[in-house]
Amino acid sequence: MTEKTDIIVIGGGIAGGSLAAAVSGDANVVLLEVEDVLGYHATGRSAAMFEPNYGNDVINALTRASHDALVEADVLSPRGVMTVADETEVHLMDAIADQQDNVRMELEEALALVPILNLSTVKDVVLGSAAQDLDVDKLFQSRLKVARANGVQLHTKSGVEGIGYVDGKWHVLTAAGEFTAPIIVNAAGAWADKIAALAGVTPLSIQPFRRSVARLPAPGGRDINDWPMLLSATETWYAKPDAGKWLVSSAEEDLIEPMDAWADDMVLSEGLARYQAFVTEEVTRVEGNWAGIRSFAPDRTPVVGFDRDARGFFWLAGQGGYGVQTSPALSELAANLISGRTLGLYADIIAALSPARDM
């Protein structure tokens, strides 16, 4: 038996879940997720930061447009990000210091804040005060709570096996049955191009990249809860406190196939070595590691809007590493586009996100 609905959302991460919540006040919605749980891949492995200077101008605008909603959801807490440069990177620091809410620090001042800095390596420091920790799970669960309250059907273990377009409606065959609707939303993250191809829609070259993270003990057993996130000026590693532990990422962007990603030991070791040069506390033990997937369109800007050729096929993909912090603005914008309501963001932002743009 085929179940009829208004909108089918494919993908149960922060993008699909937030969009389902946003549109479900006006429509019947079915959300389909292939994994056993929602938010398993990129959402569950986020760096959990709100950083309004991270990404290109479009991303920055979406992040700042999301700020008030994140404050209302009570998911932000103070953190800050300290960008550090060695002598080969100092030429990058003027531009970083000029970003909104960023200030240059004296080296001794930075050392007082993060006492493991190696000042024989670190030659310049910029502190960004706008960066905050972001409680990803709390935000995600709040969106799912709204979705459930509005009657959204949330199906896990429901991988898409076939998609067809017949008589003005999309038919989606899954392990949970067949669903049909005039609109489907492709929020499948790393699998977005595969879903498009399955539907007979031209893929947009959205590519998944791996990023690995190691969990270390707090350096020297220190209380690190108030330390800022550390970031290299060339973004070749970062480190941040997390529940009393010290997370260090090799910050790689290695192209991979869509999969349940895992950390590459050699890549992670190389990243830890890059980090090690900037600190005095030796890395002696890794307590755990994992990897996440960050998916990008060719121009590194998300793809949001109806496909130029396939009627009723809506793209919500390519959020890269910015999907959580931009999710309030992106879900609102996507819901408005789907529902035909007045758009709250400027036309140039909408054009920059359009699947019909030149990427």
Describe the structure.
This protein is of the alpha/beta class. It folds into 2 domains: 2-44 and 136-205 and 298-353, FAD/NAD(P)-binding domain (3-Layer(bba) Sandwich); 81-129 and 207-296, D-Amino Acid Oxidase, Chain A, domain 2. The protein contains 9 helices and 22 strands. It has helices at residues 14-23, 57-72, 93-97, 107-113, 136-149, 192-198, 265-276, 327-339, 347-353; strands spanning 2-4, 7-10, 29-32, 49-50, 76-78, 81-85, 102-105, 124-128, 132-134, 153-155, 160-166, 169-174, 177-181, 183-186, 207-216, 229-232, 238-242, 245-249, 254-255, 288-296, 303-306, 313-317. The strands form 4 sheets. Strands 6, 7, 8, 15, 16, 17, 18, 19 and 20 form a 9-stranded mixed β-sheet that branches. A 6-stranded mixed β-sheet has the order 10-3-2-14-22-21, sandwiched between helices. Helix 2 crosses helix 8 (327-339). It starts with a strand and ends in a 6-residue tail after the last helix.
